[in-house]
Amino acid sequence: MSLLIKNIFPILGAQYVGNDPEAIIDTVSIDSRSLQNGAHTLFFALAGPNNDAHFFVKDLIANGVCNFVVSHIPEGCADQANFLVVEDTLHALQQFAAYYRSLFNFPVIGLTGSNGKTIVKEWLNFLLSPDFNVIRSPKSYNSQVGVPLSVIAINEKHNLGLFEAGISTIAEMEKLEKIIRPSIGILTNIGSSHDEGFVNLEEKIKEKLLLFKHTPVLIYQKNDLVDKYVAPGTKAFTWSFVDETVDVFVFKKEVANQGSKLYYKYKGNSQEFTIPFQDQASLENAISCLMAMLYFEYDTATIQSRMALLFPVEMRLKVKNGINNCTLIDDSYSSDFQSLKIALDFLESQKQYQKKTVILSDIFQSGLSNEELYSKVSKLIVSNNINRVIGIGKTISAFKEQFTNCITFEDTAQFISSFESLDFANETILIKGARSFQFEEIVYLLEEKTHETVLEINLNAISYNLNFFKSKLKPNVKLMVMVKAFGYGSGGLEIAKLLEHHKIDYLGVAFADEGISLKNGGIQLPIMVLNPENTSFSAIIQHQLEPEIYSLKGLHAFLKIAKQKNLKHFPIHIKLDTGMHRLGFEENVIDELIAALKGEEAVEVRSILSHMATSDDLKHYDFAVSQIELFDKVSSKIMKELAITPIRHILNTSGISNFPDFQFDMVRLGIGLYGVSNDAAEQKYLENVGTLKSVISQIRTVPVGQSVGYGRRFVAQRPTTVATIPIGYADGVSRAWGNGVGFVTIKDKKASILGSICMDMMMVDVTEIDCTEGDAVVVFGESPTVSEIAHKLHTIPYEILTSISQRVKRVFYR
Ligand SMILES: *Cc1c(COP(=O)(O)O)cnc(C)c1O
């Protein structure tokens, strides 16, 4: 892309305020954290309900970004950059993308549907890319923001586009239609009427088909409802398992070794092909791909040979623990320029070490000449401050000179034989390669070897839950997030990093050592320590942590050290006991507290807080209100007598939900972030964050009368198929969950726990489940949920979450 600012503002109908209308734009960004932002970036300051990028404009200018699309010019920024002022920056981004799309005129396949669109897109990319320079949406970038960004990545060399569109409510598709303008449409599986935000199936189909309003050809599985809403100017190209009148009639499917064989009739001829999958969804997705290949007039032999090589699509970037304290970002299934950019941004957001390494294969289908491509890749690597590049493949080896501190290998096998000499340690490593390079072998080598039980943490779900609670806050109310107990068992540092990116105001931990490890991990947010022991005060000061002070004894001890160290205005937090009777100053010592703080320069009361005993249970509503009233009264008195205006806060997660009028200046979010609500109605709006997973180690059949496990507490009443899972009470699964009380989920089915849970293992009943050794087992997550387990075990979700042992590896993904 190369556009002049002066040519862009008429397109957006923007008011131009700036001094360099001749500025050249070569990329577009919405991510203020991306290291790829530069002088030729056009930054669209999007404003959501919770995050407003206008807030970052000043920092971006300081980092050399000169061109912005904004809805208002942030304070202190006028005259410092080019501003295109519009009413709605998201709308402007969409307009810009639609304009940019109109500059190109090659076939574009638009995909929508309820299921399968990302898979069909990735498969089509694989099937068609030997013959086309394909530009496609990266991962599942299919939203109101993702689609424009995908389209803006088109360049002059591309000659086929694959873009997916996802919508959740009505009126969204029309906007995406203008941006994608498909010349060929594919409607994938449409799902049931219950999912997504539509009243019924008909409305959903009608809305989805708006993507194809001006599309000459539409591929879909024959269906009367779809027929009814296909635009009059669109030619249907249909397939079916049952209706012989369609263009492609799939008349037989049979199980072939490790896969399926499909027989179809097209233009009077019967043909067949095989795919390495057996499930119904994969069959339908493969047929969608077949239709596109037939439309492009591929011959049967090519279809057969390529279809046989279809692969499972990995849709997310995974963060894993590596050997020697490394952190791995596993993106070992694709290599194209666009997804490299995304992976590098992700690397930056996840890096735990200053040192960053990228292991990169040859890049395919860029549409550019190799010279141009690798010079662009090199620029990208430089702008992301990558310390070393390990290139694998003949082409990247030939362009080794483009990179500094680069070592290359002809192929993966050569890399593996030199592995020991590469000394991977204390660094974050992005592993990014095309499928054919089999980088999964590299990931395997670099991955820390532990047993197969992991707690998977969905970082997107955390962001989602955070935004859910943020949206409940009144303007200017600050947010503290509690990451005590290792982030409620989910992983402290990783979650703190994510929260820092989301610009929350404070972190809260229980003990000083938790805060110290966050600070050592590079966290810069202020951190309040709830339970500072007097012995830790020195360490607290040294690491710039902020103690909660809850007694006169503690205050005097802290003041003593603060004075020894000549501190001035060191931030402290005053905790009031208003009825919880755990920690805090009671009302009767407040005068003494005030006296001790009056005129004291060594410390500064940054906040005053209290904690509620019953915010989750409206049965105690009156008591809760009495706590809040006492808090207001006592804190007001302190503020008045000391003439200070600290941050006041009392609400935890349930408080945010149940006492919205008492947010004061800040709230303290805890369990809600991790996807658990104490309120069943609210639970529906939260996303599950943690999934405790394991695998089946062994399967056997136990005859009638035989027993399973210690103490023979389960005796088979029927021949029982028993699977052994390598997770036990030492991993944090309560023994009370055994003996038929609890269950795990295997292949979406419940398998009840047989007999007693052992220290490192448990046995479950899989008699009714078609499974094999090595299959995945969910111990908690979507089902059973943590709340469900807590309820049956007469405890609370907090205890279930925080009981998971540290020996269980945490794996983060988004
Ligand atoms: C743990 C804790 C919170 C958060 O509580 P949730 O119920 O998890 O939201 C808030 N404040 C204090 C003082 C806490 O100890």
From TrEMBL:
Metabolic or biological pathway: Amino-acid biosynthesis; D-alanine biosynthesis; D-alanine from L-alanine: step 1/1
| Keyword RNA-binding found | no
- Which reactions fall under this protein's catalytic activity? L-alanine = D-alanine
GO MF annotation: an example: ATP binding
Q: Required cofactors, per record?
A: pyridoxal 5'-phosphate
The entry's keywords: Isomerase, Ligase, Pyridoxal phosphate
Q: In the Enzyme Commission scheme, what number(s) does this protein have?
A: 5.1.1.1
**Cellular component GO terms, alphabetical:** cytosol
Domain Alanine racemase C-terminal as annotated: residue spans: 689-813
Which protein, by its recorded name, is this? Answer: Alanine racemase
Species this protein is from: Flavobacterium granuli
